[in-house]
Amino acid sequence: MELLSAVTLNNLICSLVGTVLYAAWSLLEKRTRTETQISLIYHMLHILVILMGLPYFWVFLCGRHEVDGVWSGNLMSQTPFTIFASRLLAGVWAAGFLWNLCRYGAEIYRYRRLDRNLLECRASVCDAAACIAGQMHIRRKVLVKESYALLSSELGSWVRPVIHLPAGQYDDESLTNIVTHELLHYKNGDKFIRELMLIQACFHWFNPVSRKILNQLKIWDEYHCDFETCRCGHIRQNSYCETLFHMYQLGETRKSLINPGFYEEKSDLRRRLEKMMNQENKKKTNRLRTGALALVFAVSGAAMGFMASVGMAKAYEKVVETTIVAEEETADSTEKKEYIEYTIMPDDTVEWNYVEMDEIMPLQDGDIFSCTLKNSSSRTDSFNVSIGQEISVSVSVVPKNVEIKVGIQQPNGVWRYVKGSELINHTFKVTQNGAHRVYVQNDSSTEVNVFGHYVITD
Question: Please, are residues 269 and 220 in contact by the beta-carbon 8 Å criterion?
Fold first, then answer.
């Protein structure tokens, strides 16, 4: 299997996992009423983003490798069709990925240009932010900047706490509400998860669900942060809602792809206020229960990814089986005459020269393999050879009356093979540069044990 094929299949698996998990998450999201449920939905959404980026197929490939060093089935095989299809799909995907990367990159660049005009706030605001950070057990120094171009506060970095404020005068309570809100975004890693999802949206540009997940992140980060802020001992919920409503009256601010803000859109702000006023239970969140349910969601998503890998591998093997291009060659004779000359020395003694086998057939230029086959095939790991070299294969088959195929797989996907039983020896002349594999295949229903080795010669 080419790298392009593996990348393409892994992308499809991750996109499928994300779509199914998002459908399940959407059903649960519509039933959220309590603060505990909101916290659970929020963490499940973050887990969903991480699960969409896991290399399921790569882990599956590592686990598929057998102990005896050979691959079973057609998973590591290629045909001209699979090579063409994987390269075509990879080309289309790469074009869409680069286009979305440039599009999102241009938007982020515009935000960064505006951020250069930010000025550091006066000392009293910075001191108040540092005091709030201390109460929230944030050890890193808080940097507060302001700009007249902003109508709402936002978090500027996930590496260190940097808060961007609209230029103006703030009373102590409003400033506390805003700074607490943004520092909670920092503690929860909301900006990092949003940037991670933005990358995922570039990778899965062909799936509209990725864009929906990005939009839901922006909404649920704020929902969760609203409730977390009101749970802080130094925040009054009525005062916090008044601050939100004040931002609502100012108008819409810039819509940032990656910076979590205190307020971005009027429609979102209205839903946030309604969510806070309509909560059914104001008791403290049961963290143990939330964590257990989130863990179940994560394990289920990972299991789904590996199940999808198994299904995708079987589908790939089926495609390979139906698109194989094989060229049969005439097998070399297995019985060759050997001529041995004995030289009698004058003293009637015979001199014997013992030569180590490795000197004649060095194993570093080949390998040994063995497998058991029944209506199946096995392949060695790939090895690189050049035009002009030869691959000599020797195979013994038990029981000896069963005919099998022994051959090589070329970089262009064409399989060259010979048929034989009991003992098969053949030398394949290399006609292409690149990675080759030796394979054996038993199409009969009789189980056979195959032992062999191959040697590469110039």
Answer: no
Helices (H), 65-171: 80-115, 123-135
| Element counts in the chain: helices (H) and strands (E) | 12, 15
Question: 179 — alpha (psi -120 to 50), left (phi > 0) or beta?
Answer: alpha
d(CA 37, CA 29) in angstroms, rounded, equals 9
- Of 405, 440, 439, 403, nearest to 422 by C-alpha is 403
Tell me how far apart the alpha carbons of residues 81 and 423 are, in angstroms, rounded to a whole number. Answer: 33
Report which of 108, 87, 104 is spatially closest to residue 6, judged by C-alpha positions: 87
Q: List phi, psi (to 5°) of 390.
A: -130, 145
Assigned token pair, 188:
């929860």
Tens digits of per-residue pLDDT, 256-306? 666 676 666 666 777 777 777 665 445 555 667 777 888 888 898 889 888
**CA nearest neighbour of 153 among 167, 173, 134:** 167
What is the number of residues in the chain?
458
Phi, psi dihedral angles at 161 (to 5 degrees): -75, 105
Residue 157 token pair: 């970095």
H or E element at residue 307:
helix 287-322
Q: Helix or strand or coil: residue 436?
A: strand
Q: DSSP labels for 309-345?
A: HHHHHHHHHHHHHHS--EEE-PPPPS-----------
Asked if 152 and 165 touch (Cβ cutoff 8 Å), the reply is no
Q: Is the pTM of this model over 0.85?
A: no
What residues contact 69, with CB distance under 8 A and at least 6 apart?
Answer: 367, 369, 380, 381
Residues 121-140 pLDDT 10s:
888 888 999 999 988 888 88
Strand partners, 424: 395
